[in-house]
Amino acid sequence: MDERVVNVENKRSGLENPEYEALNERALGTNVNPQTLLATDYLNHFNEVIMLIGMVPDMPEMLEDVREWQPKSYQDHFRDSSIADKELAIEAYEFVPDNFKDPFDKTIQQLNDLVATTLARLEMDLDAGNLDLARENAASFSRTLQRLVDVAGGIIHGSESSLMDQTEIDALLSI
């Protein structure tokens, strides 16, 4: 096998990889988890929009702030961040082992998709003048989004069994 292919595979798995090991050591005592090489600070990006969604039924003008929220990649979040370990978080992301990165990326995509679905649903509710339904949907979607943030947090902290599948998400939303 080509040495470059082996190096890429080792980089992604974290196995016998001196770069992963070096990043693991550098992550000790930082906001970056040494095992997964992920940092929970990224989840603040989602906590912000969840808070805004929860405010929409009582303050419909907050819907504009929800519309302005945009998905942001992990590395872009840290590029725009002011946390002390941002350079480590950016560098380490490339070396996150697959058993954490794949479920993490899938969960983040689910979060991004669900924010878009939530926005569309709340817009429909408010356009119809149905504040009670908007309140119910905001609460339901916020709980599901928070559950997905919790799943992502579990992955960041080293859990390999936290992933929610689409059936579970649909059941939580009663879609």
| Overall tally of domains | 1
DSSP helix fraction:
55-70%
Radius of gyration: 18 Å
From the spread of the alpha carbons, the general shape counts as elongated
Output the structural class.
mainly alpha
Discrete helix count:
9
- Biggest sheet details: none
Number of strands: 0
Portion of residues in beta strands equals under 5%
Task: Report, as a whole number of angstroms, the end-to-end distance.
Answer: 47 Å
Which regions contain 5 or more consecutive residues with pLDDT less than 50?
1-11
Order of helices and strands: HHHHHHHHH
How would you state the average pLDDT, rounded?
Answer: 88
Give a description of the structure.
The protein is mainly α and 175 residues long. The protein has one domain. Helix content is 67%, strand content 0%. The chain has helices spanning 3-13, 18-27, 44-55, 63-68, 74-79, 86-93, 98-127, 131-156, 166-173. It is elongated and about 60 Å long. The N and C termini lie far apart (47 Å). Residues 1-11 have low confidence and may be disordered.
For the structure shown, list the relevant keywords.
single chain; 175 residues; mainly alpha; 9 helices; 67% helix; 0% strand
Topology:
Layout (H helix, E strand, L loop, with lengths): L2 H11 L4 H10 L16 H12 L7 H6 L5 H6 L6 H8 L4 H30 L3 H26 L9 H8 L2
Helix pairs in contact: 3-7, 3-8, 7-8
What would a concise description of this structure say?
This protein has 175 residues and is mainly α. It has nine helices and no strands.
